[in-house]
User: Fold these one by one.
Assistant:
Number 1:
Amino acid sequence: MSDPNSSPEVVDINLALVRRLVANQFPQWAGLPIRPVEFGGWDNRTFHLGNSMTVRLPSARHYAEQVEKEQFWLPKLAPGLPLPIPEPLGMGVPGKDFPWHWSIYRWIEGATATIERIADLTDFAKALSGFLTALQRIDGTGGPLPGRHNFFRGGPLKTYDEEARQAMAALDGKIDTDAARSVWETALNSNWQGSPVWFHGDVSWGNLLVDRGQLSAVIDFGTSGIGDPACDLVIAWTLFQGESREVFRAGLQLDVATWARARGWALWKAMIVFAGMAGTNSPGAESSCRVIHEVIADYKL
């Protein structure tokens, strides 16, 4: 097995590589067609394998730890959830062609949850809050605590304090920095008081699938773990608004302090993207600016 400490940071993942990996490690599926999916994500690269499977490979070394976690925990989470989640069918091992573990999953039908594909945003909010409530109720004993494997999702926001304040300084004059500081410091001044609960860690449109306008599945549990569920509520400002936001919040029935920390999570991510800080990606400056204004307006209510 390759030494993960000596592996490269990033690997060029292409169709030829995936064909070799499947042929060498899963010869029973070597004859099936392979093609990239329309939206393969940032943390991993995903390919169709035949008509009923996907191949998923971490795109960089700091995502590689997530593979074994998903392989172990997803089958344990699935029975307690009201919607499909990825079902592991096989785990590839590191080798000369690819230095990390990788996965084969059963294919889940559906398209990513862009706003135009959602039939009714309020119904969608209700279904998503129901899914997250069910996830939080699953026994978390032995689950993965926040750490490097999930970029400390589910842990204290103070992990990102320096980064958030750098972004605030960079955005001075572009946003209401006094209000942003109040949102951030309010979020920092509370902690999850309950036992650690399961969270997804990246509840965003690209990890939610829709079928005929309805929420049909939740994918990509790479940043999942047990801890504070506030990180799962960011979608309240990135996707929902008005009635749909209220329905989402009512369905989760979490305390005021948890929502304050959720605003902090949303603000941190939107600010670092809007400020163009290193390592950031989608949704881009315009969308991030809107999220910042939405979070601040919600805080002032």
Note: The chain has two domains: 4-108, 112-300.
Number 2:
Amino acid sequence: MLETTTLKFLKDLTKNNNKPWFDAHRPQYEIAKADFYALVEKLIPAIAKFDEPIGQLVTKQCVFRINRDVRFSKNKAPYKSNMACYFNQAGKNGLGGGYYLHIEPGKSFAAGGIWVPEPSVLAGIRQEIDYNFADWKRIIENKNFKKTFTEGLRSNESLVRPPKGYDENNPAIEFLKMKSFIVSKPFADSDLQNKNFVTGVAKTFNSMKPLIDFLNMALH
């Protein structure tokens, strides 16, 4: 679970996203950061129960910095209004599919899959879906999967025309046009402060593991 003070800090940061305010409230940030790190430290062994390699990670390999990269963005706010972490065999910088947790007041969620993979990786995933479409359907049509991820499989965007080498009549064309493969489940602020929050997030990640295994199979 997370402390009320962590959510309050993020709410206050959203209203005061500037360096002078952040510097003046750095002690509160350090407390919120420590609280989030403690949560991640509990999540790692919980995920490792069903995805063993994750257990080799340490917290700092999984947590994203709160500072934003504003070099190429019109939004020059220096800080993120959330805290987030990503669990992949290689940590937050891993290229394959993995598990993502986003903590933001009123907008928290657990997600997983792969987001905008490199062209070679995307081509491999499309080929895997095409070759093993029956296995793919068993994953995304599983009752527990559909119950957990009510919005279904999502993509940041999809192609209008079939990707090169595929026909419009391919039974998997809906998925072959995707550029990302993501599922997610929202969590209310009250969920974050529940003593069973870690268990709930781990259960959500476990539900998406067959999808992540399939995506990562395409990398090999």
Note: Residues 4-217 form a domain with the BirA Bifunctional Protein; domain 2 fold (CATH 3.30.930).
Number 3:
Amino acid sequence: MMMKYEAVIIGGGPVGFMLASELAMAGVGTCVIERLEKPVPHSKALTLHPRTLELLEMRGILERFVSKGSKIPSGHFSMLDTRLDFSGLDTSCPYTLLLPQSKTEKLLEDHARSLGTEVFRGAEALAVTQNGEEVQTIFKDRDGSVRTITSKFAIGADGAGSTVRKQAKIEFPGTDSTVTAALGDVALLSPPPSGVLSLCTKEGGVMIVPLSPDRYRVVVISPYRTQTPKDVPVTEEELKADLLRICGTDFGLTDPSWLLDSYHDERHPAAEGLLRNTEAQTKLIDFTQAGLHLRSMMSELLAFPDVNRYVAGQISALDVRYEADRTMPPNRLNGARLPDMKLILSDGNSERLYSFLQNGTFVLLSLRQEADDHIEVKGLCTVTASLAEPNEKLRDVHTILIRPDGHVAWAVDASAPDCTQVIQKGISRWFSVTSRV
């Protein structure tokens, strides 16, 4: 039987389900094809960073995640002793959220399903081909039957070994891994006093994080095993020996439920800046005498507030800025992320900015005068308001077009020549005439 959707997403991880939710909110008929019958019980990642939390807040679902996780007001850079302070960052989410990826995936899948996304689990994509203006996705369902979906778009969210990427002959450039580490989710009969440990000496590095009352994640980077081939299995004895050598105890490690044998990034970085940051942290995992001196110096530098703020902004992804729209007049806000803020609406009521982003639409925020009544565009929410608190960055701003991800598409100052005409131009630039109501 031939099925039809506007978009097919292959891969039901966090990226696939988040994208499915965004498309569903935009009214796009979407389905997800996921090879696994059930969500993976093991978690590759354990934390959500501030910028990700902001995006969840924009969609009105942050509390679902916070209620199942633990807030941590700091982060680390290459396991250095000096922690990164997130508490002073300009965000409503100045913390990382300790939440296993398995729970994150479940919450995102539930959200996507609630918006009407159809999910085919236990389904393996076999072929993705493009024919004219359509894409045909052939997959084998959980019963072994071969089925075909016709769609306008097919999205590969199935990781480094993506079926879509390979069949579309899209390259996956990158560099080989330079450091191999060992990871295990285990029980500890004598865990660290606080349950958390981050230690780096000439004998190696160790991180221990509690996953539940009786399970811990143990990550070990040994200077004696940094070049171990990734396909060599990690053993319980190896983890115990490394812990004993580095920490003087193996913490009563027992009952491993998962072992991961590679510290290599499992997906291409979202941006070149993230790649540089990751490479810098990896380079600092150096257990030679000179390397330990460098780590000590970097830790001392992070004690300076400005340096700490700079690195924290990178790690939290709150400093990401996109290229400005070159067809619009220059403005200091163009391309920048816009933090949440309290607004006073024209009827006197107050509202948070991010509440207007919950449906995944653009927001046209007018801060100086009543918005023109004729500005009605599909996918655009028009808001007229004033700031509840003074904000120097917005002091002279007349109107801002805010993208669904909270970044500024463009901003126009009240002092700009032909301000009204520039705003109209900006709306026409980002919304086609056919999309107008």
Note: The radius of gyration is 24 Å.
